[in-house]
Amino acid sequence: MLKTLAKSIREYKTASILSPLFVTIEVILECLMPFVIAELVGVIEHSGSMEEAEAMATVWKYAGILVGIAVASLVAGTLAGVFCAKASTGFAKNLRKDLYYHIQEFSFENIDKFSTPSLVTRMTTDVTNVQMAYMMIVRLAIRAPLMVIFSFIMAFVMGGDLAWIFIAVVPVVAAALFAIMYKVMPTFRRLFHKYDDMNESVQENVSGIRVVKAYVREEYEKDKFGKTSTALMKDFTKAERLLAWNDPIMQFAFYGVLSSVLFVGSYLIMKGGDTGGYDVTSVSQLIVYGMQILSSVMMFSMVFAMIAMSMESARRIVEVLNEKSSLHDPENPIFEVKDGSIDFDHVNFKYSPTAEKFVLNDIDLHIKSGETIGIIGGTGSSKTSLVNLLSRLYDVTEGSVEVGGVDVREYDLTALRNQVAVVLQKNVLFSGTIKENLRWGNPDATDEELVEACKLAQADEFVRAFPKGYDTYIEQGGTNVSGGQKQRLCIARALLKKPKILVLDDSTSAVDTHTDALIRKAFRDYIPTTTKIIIAQRISSVEDADRIIVMDGGKINGIGTHEELVKTNAIYAEVYHSQTKGAASDEK
Ligand SMILES: Nc1ncnc2c1ncn2[C@@H]1O[C@H](COP(=O)(O)OP(=O)(O)OP(=O)(O)O)[C@@H](O)[C@H]1O
Ligand SMILES: [Mg+2]
């Protein structure tokens, strides 16, 4: 896991090494400081035996050294901080970028596996957690143990045997702190999951706010949100309550050490005679080092907590990074799609390898280049699943799908998708101008080509009616255009690819029948060689197709022209009659 994460450090390796280096320098200097002060105090104590000038000179010398050490330590500390910030933010940036790039490679199957909000949470909250942990590691994880070691050495040098008191106390304090952490950890882990739940609920409801309002579900949603955030609060309080023990334990240890050092120290001093070299100065020095040791232990326990906390986040990030895209380009890909012919050869398909039933069953279907094919069938009859295989949004489970006489798995993916343009059932426009949106189809399209595609898709007229025409800004998700307008823009966008195969998955459902007919006429007249596959709920959208496929429960129930199917196919005939009757009664 760490190896995968470490890959994202890259150009910030130097900073990641320099920071602890400067921390080490800072720690050494900080530990020297009380030592020099002690010397100085010693000089002052014995100044009575010196000439005044000589004494002053010595004091100045020590003062100079002190200031020098202080400045050097400050500089080292600042540099450590700067490098640490650079290393951790740089690492987080790379990590986000790696995640983002990796997600772009995902196939539909991969995306099905992780939900969108979960991917967003992983890229934001989880990366931030790991960034914090990394910062702690670079800066404090080295500082704390170093501080303990150096402080102890100095305490030993200055205070001799009394320093053992610290050694005795450190494991006790450390054990207590780690015990707290151990208890807190599961709560924190649960807490991150709750964070996830809350983020998911926020994202889902904010992006679906119109639906929430339309169904007057505000109260319900508020209630739901209230519950998740209260649960979060409760867990946080629980964790904090445990963590609050840190303080009293530290205080207890600190005063315990203080009184033992004072007690033993003063006893030795008062006893007089052989005090083992203890005097007021050395005892007070010992206390200073003792404080440093204890605070370092505390710091270390905090670092430990933070690292442990971010482990869950790290795991979630690595899970995404290690997810292999389920679609691969072949070794020697074919870039040229010969024509728009399509052959399904005994295709079986299911979305997940573990699913029991196939979504598509033994599909054997052969379409000539330039044909117009209609597909009709009830909801869930696998119409979308069928066409998704054409542009390799998913791969077949068994059998094969050929386009232009070549198995789709042998094409370069980009080349294939440029030739098989699909107007998805759940299509989206992105925030940007209409022109920008259209150019998703073909970045190099000229303005004339944009207009031409829009004319075919019957979009030109309404686009021109907008005050800003083709420069009209589309809001995120296309909320400022009507459903039918959006569909027509999506069709125009697909047309700009000048594809050999054009798939419209229920793409004119929100367009009135008259405009729908105009679009189909334009297709017939202007792109006769393109194979057109039109999925629709309305018979009128497909009745003039060369052939119509009737899908039922993942199988082909019938194929033929409108006239043939009305006579021979029960499902088709029923749909046809129900729709014409409906139209007839509408007219009354
Ligand atoms: N991403 C997916 N993961 C798992 N199962 C899916 C997925 N998409 C669709 N299915 C399932 O596959 C079956 C066929 O769905 P499909 O979307 O192909 O139907 P459809 O004919 O296009 O329906 P509609 O007319 O409503 O668009 C359904 O049972 C559906 O639940
Ligand atoms: Mg569908």
Give structural notes.
With 588 residues, the chain is of the alpha/beta class. The protein folds into two domains: 2-321, ABC transporter type 1, transmembrane domain (ABC transporter transmembrane region fold, Up-down Bundle), CATH 1.20.1560.10; 342-587, P-loop containing nucleotide triphosphate hydrolases (Rossmann fold). It is built from 19 helices and twelve strands. It has a six-stranded mixed β-sheet with strand order 6-9-10-3-11-12. Helix 2 packs antiparallel against helix 3 (52-104) and helix 6 packs antiparallel against helix 9. The longest helix is centred in the N-terminal third of the chain and has 53 residues, at 52-104. The chain is elongated, with a radius of gyration of 37 Å. The two termini are 70 Å apart. The model has no long low-confidence stretch (mean pLDDT 88). It binds adenosine-5'-triphosphate and magnesium ion. Magnesium ion binds at residues 383-384, 425, 505-506.
